[in-house]
Amino acid sequence: MTTPPASEHTPTPSLRRRVTRTVLAVIAVLLLVVGVAIDLALGVQLRRDVHDRRTAPCGQDPHFGRNVGRVVQEHHQIPRRTLS
């Protein structure tokens, strides 16, 4: 069995080169998908945060004052010590 002349060979890349290119392409696509997903998730969170800040009263924490009445009552129930 003889090998055909060099002019009749079809140039094909080696298996290692094809596998390397395929793996790099898959990694690039995965990075792109993960990057877009993170960008979308952070964008939604930031828009929600901006909306909450715009709708909250200026200069006030939305949680401020919820337990003020209870804290004041507890404060008055504590006996005060006088300095002698």
Q: What percent strand?
A: under 5%
Strand count, sense and barrel status of the largest sheet are: none
* Principal-axis shape: rod-shaped
**In angstroms, what is the radius of gyration?**
35 Å
**C-alpha end-to-end distance:** 116 Å
Structural class: mainly alpha
What is the string of helix and strand elements? Answer: HH
- Rounded average pLDDT: 76
Report the helical percentage: 55-70%
Number of helices: 2
Total strand count, please? 0
Task: Detail the poorly predicted runs.
Answer: none
Characterization of the model:
By secondary structure, the chain is mostly helical. Helix content is 61%, strand content 0%. The chain is built from two helices and no strands. The longest helix is centred in the middle third of the chain and has 41 residues, at 15-55.
Task: Provide keyphrases for this structure.
rod-shaped, 2 helices, mainly alpha, 84 residues
Concise summary:
This protein is mainly alpha-helical and 84 residues long.
SSE layout and pairings?
Blueprint: H1 15-55, H2 68-77
